[in-house]
Amino acid sequence: MATRTRPSSKRCAVIGGSGFLGRHLVERLVDRGYTVNVFDIRQAYELPGVTFHQGDLCDRQALLLALKEVSVVFHCASPAPASDDRALFQRVNIDGTRTVIQACHEAGVQKLILTSSASVVFEGTDIKNGREDLPYAKKPIDYYTETKIVQEKLVLEACSKEKGFLTVAIRPHGIFGPRDPQLVPILIDTARRGKMKFIIGDGSNLVDFTYVENVVHGHILAAEHLKADSPLCGQAYHITNDEPVRFWDFMSQILEGLGYSAPRYHLPYTLVYGIALLLWLMALVLRPLIRIKPTFTPMRVALAGTHHYYSCARAKKDMGYQPLVPLREAIVRTVESYPHLRKGA
Ligand SMILES: NC(=O)C1=CN([C@@H]2O[C@H](COP(=O)(O)OP(=O)(O)OC[C@H]3O[C@@H](n4cnc5c(N)ncnc54)[C@H](OP(=O)(O)O)[C@@H]3O)[C@@H](O)[C@H]2O)C=CC1
Ligand SMILES: CC(C)=CCC[C@@H](C)[C@H]1CC[C@H]2C3=C(CC[C@]12C)[C@@]1(C)CCC(=O)C[C@@H]1CC3
């Protein structure tokens, strides 16, 4: 058992603090006067006021060292959705989260803030202004989502005022911003391979894209408002930019901002989804012989061709959330942060 001394409310740990969201969160926490322990499988940077603990979150002993004298834990580690590795998702998002909760108990941590995902309610069909009381997806669109659902339930069910252990889940959607290794790089890679010519469906589907600083703001508000007498205990909160945008307009603004042409030709949604499903099945059958990673997975086609935007009214009401950076400004900042992905660079 770890020795317990009274933790300071300004001492926190960020599990997954070397990742895209995690690092932005760490930087903001340091600005706000927190002392931060980062726990991650890799160390990606150095920062004054931050102590790194390298390890796998499934390793309780390693975690305990990072949680010593910590009162608030942010858990934003996960394998990347693109890894599509069921056993890895199960091990890290489910078994690993159980270990995180257990280690929090042993270390005397008072608050656990989980980065969940709005996709826990998404089944590949339209969601318009979805609220947190939508049921969890019965048929999640991939293993990542399947394990994010179980992970969220584990964390919210662990909330116990009696034990002095409070939990909350933040559900962001479509996080983007400087240093994101997914959205802009995937988009530009697709454009460079000449595959960004088509709009899937009629192009009118609205989606939430959330600037990383707004997601960070939601996490810190949640941590600071989470108290035994607050409505946040054991609840999930959507955090978005609160400006749903046409998926294809958003993609076009990033593409054009970086000097590429926006897609112009339309393809029927059901046709592209059917082809993606076929390719995915073929990849599954051939997996023992050869590992293929198709660009157009059914999950990606569903994300690109359906409405999926969420209400953050609950976060506004319970924790005074308002996005800090509007979408237009967020897109400008993001485009400027990727000079190496500019056409011709
Ligand atoms: N990006 C998005 O659009 C959205 C993200 N989310 C959630 O936000 C969180 C952060 O996402 P994001 O910043 O994009 O992801 P990143 O992959 O950038 O960050 C996750 C970090 O966790 C680390 N990690 C993975 N497995 C382990 C492990 N077993 N032990 C310790 N550390 C580990 C990763 O290391 P390594 O890179 O080596 O794997 C990485 O540094 C995730 O929980 C994700 O599900 C939710 C909604 C949308
Ligand atoms: C809204 C949301 C949850 C975004 C998450 C990030 C990624 C899932 C997207 C980032 C770039 C997107 C993209 C496509 C699908 C979804 C993304 C990977 C396509 C592959 C969809 C089909 C195309 O025509 C090309 C797109 C490239 C960019």
Automatic annotation (TrEMBL):
User: Could you provide one GO biological process annotation from this protein's UniProt record?
Assistant: cholesterol biosynthetic process
Q: Give the catalytic activity.
A: 4beta-methylzymosterol-4alpha-carboxylate + NAD(+) = 3-dehydro-4-methylzymosterol + CO2 + NADH; 4alpha-carboxy-4beta-methyl-5alpha-cholest-8-en-3beta-ol + NAD(+) = 4alpha-methyl-5alpha-cholest-8-en-3-one + CO2 + NADH; 4alpha-carboxyzymosterol + NAD(+) = zymosterone + CO2 + NADH; a 3beta-hydroxysteroid-4alpha-carboxylate + NAD(+) = a 3-oxosteroid + CO2 + NADH
The UniProt transmembrane annotation reads 271-290
Record has Ribonucleoprotein as a keyword: no
Keywords in alphabetical order: Acetylation, Cholesterol biosynthesis, Cholesterol metabolism, Endoplasmic reticulum, Lipid biosynthesis, Lipid droplet, Lipid metabolism, Membrane, NAD, Oxidoreductase, Steroid biosynthesis, Steroid metabolism, Sterol biosynthesis, Sterol metabolism, Transmembrane, Transmembrane helix
Q: Name the pathway it acts in.
A: Steroid biosynthesis; zymosterol biosynthesis; zymosterol from lanosterol: step 4/6
**Which GO CC annotations does the UniProt entry carry?**
endoplasmic reticulum membrane; lipid droplet
Quote the subcellular location field of this record. Answer: Endoplasmic reticulum membrane; Lipid droplet
Q: What is the topology of this protein in the membrane according to its UniProt annotation?
A: Single-pass membrane protein
Q: What is its EC number?
A: 1.1.1.170
Q: Name the domain of life this protein comes from.
A: Eukaryota
Keyword Transmembrane tagged: yes
**What GO molecular function terms would the record report?**
3-beta-hydroxysteroid dehydrogenase [NAD(P)+]/C4-decarboxylase activity
Q: Where is the 3-beta hydroxysteroid dehydrogenase/isomerase domain?
A: 13-267
Instruction: Write down the InterPro entries for this protein, in alphabetical order.
Output: 3Beta_OHSteriod_DH/Estase, Lipid_A_modif_metabolic_enz
Q: Which residues form the signal peptide?
A: none
Q: Matching Pfam families, A to Z?
A: 3Beta_HSD
Would you identify the family this protein belongs to, as annotated?
Belongs to the 3-beta-HSD family.
Q: How does it assemble?
A: Homodimer.
Could you tell me what this protein is called?
A: Sterol-4-alpha-carboxylate 3-dehydrogenase, decarboxylating
